[in-house]
Every structure is written in structure tokens, then in C-alpha cells.
Automatic annotation (TrEMBL):
Protein name per UniProt: Nudix hydrolase 2
PANTHER family, per the entry: NUDIX HYDROLASE 2, NUDIX HYDROLASE RELATED
Family membership noted in the UniProt record: Belongs to the Nudix hydrolase family.
Domain of life according to the entry: Eukaryota
InterPro entries linked to this entry: NUDIX_hydrolase-like_dom_sf, Nudix_hydrolase6-like, NUDIX_hydrolase_CS, NUDIX_hydrolase_dom, Pre-Nudix
Species of provenance: Platanthera guangdongensis
Gene this protein is translated from: NUDT2
Amino acid sequence: MEPLVASNGERINLLAAVKDDYGGVIVELKAPMDPRAFEMSLKLSISNWRQQGIRGVWIKLPIELVSLVQLIVEEGFWYHHAEPNYLMLVYWIPATKHTIPVNATHRVGVGAFVVNDQKEILVVQEKIGSLRGLGFWKIPTGVINQGEDISTGVIREVKEETGIETEFVEVLAFRQSHHSFFEKSDLFFLCMLRPLSFVIQKQESEIEAAQWMPIDEYAAKPFVRKHKFSKYLLDIGTAKLENRYSGFSPICMLPAFVDGQSYLYVNAGDLEQKSGHGNYPSNRMINIPETRKSSRFFFDLSLDTWQFRTIIEGLIRINQAQERTVQD
């Protein structure tokens, strides 16, 4: 903190802050503070930020300093979001309508369409939730964790609920709904997975029953026939099994403006057919054999379409050649 002299001559430390990318500052409180000293520091800091033309002020308050919440709110801050170990508060200094982005608006859910070679679909009955005790069979579903990819999260959910090992094939469809969880919206991704194991070990804490069920038997269930959403999911998955439908396959990317990798989900089959350029990845992530896994491919999304297409075509040819080498 930087010392400053208040109007009464008292030396007060300004709150330490770092500038963000949008004309604001972020204050991350860590050490315990005397409430009165903190109140004075906050008031003087706001005055100083106003003179500097700062717009938004974020305060990240650890749960250990929760006693300071009232003082912060009384200065005009409001809650933005909370995590298990901190509360984020925000304040808009200019006398204009604020442009603070809202907190995360959506939860991301997944459903797994898993069918074995006997045309049996993997289904479960829930032990908890709104369907508990009703005897309804449904596909395995769950929620994606923070920082988890859709393709990874849906594999995890199937493993947790049924013990079945799978590999990701495609995103088949997605649904957006609203007011589903504490007024948040919901994005639900229907994914096709390929089973790698077949012996079911159900999750005792959440799953009442799990089994491989013939698709025709599942389709005849009253819940599936009457529940439009469930029927759509089954129709889409069945169409994919019969090669009458194409979903979206993940391509590993290195974004231009954020750290870490991400996945672009594309309809690879249609893209190849309509563009007439090379072989695009279909039903699998672009990756090289397990023996060379450290060389995973990344892409810069700042490339134009022609450059991107050329790189993909070249990498696919390399990938195919490496796979043939490993098989030989």
C-alpha cells in the first residue's frame, strides 16, 4: 500500500491494485486489516482512482476477511460472484451506466449416447434428483467441471455413473434452456461415445440402476415416447448410428488471445464434402499415436481460412503416416 495524507492530516495507505484491460483496477485483499483502517483506505483509494479516470473497481475478498463485506458494500460495491474461498465485489466510479460484464450466465451439462455392438443403449435410473423413485430410464448425464472440456467431462460422467470406459466420438446436438439452476441458463450437449468396456459397475451414491437396454425397448418406454426432449435425443442418436446424421468433432486449437488449448467442434464430413479440400478429421480428435503423444497439434486461430485448411490437411497426412508406421 502507498501512504497518503487525508484531510485531517492522518497518514493512510492506499489499497494496492493492479490495472485490468478495460480501464479498471483489481484489488486482491490477503492480509487481515483493522476495519477502521480499511474503511479509510477504501474511501481514499476510490477518490484517488476517480482522479485517475479509473472506471471499474474489483475487490477479491477471501473468506477469511468476510467481516469487511459490510464496509465494502456501504461504499457502493455490489456482489459480482462467489467461489468457495472468495467473494468478488465490484464498483463503477463514473456517473454513467456501468459496463461491468455479468457473472457467468450458463451451466454446461452433457448427456452420453452410448451404444454397444448389440445395438443396446447404456441407460440409468437416478437415485437422487427429480426423477428418483419414478423408475424412469435415461441416458447418463452430468455437469462439466470448471476448466474441463466437453469431450473429457462426458467420458468422466459415464465412468462415474456406470463404470463403463468410453472414447469420445461427436457432439450430436445441444439445447439451451433458462431458469434451470438458481435462475441460471443451461447448455446441454448430447454426445456420442464409443464403449471400450461393457461390464457395468453403477455408482452407488447416485444411481439406482444401470443396464444395456435394446434400443427398441428403450424407444418403447412411456417416458421416452411422451417426453419430446428424450425422443429427440434418441432420434438424433439413432440417425447417427444409421449414418443419416453428422455431428461435430473436436479439433485441438491454440487460441490467439487466451492461454492454454481449446477445442473447435466442426462438422468435418460436410466441411470436406463442400470445400473439396483434403481430408478433415471425422469422429476423432486430431492427435498423433500414443508413442508420440507429447507432440499434440495446436493451431493459431488468427490464421485465415486457407492457411488453416492447408495446415490441417498437412497434419492429417502426417498423422495418418505415423499411424501406419506404428501399425507396421
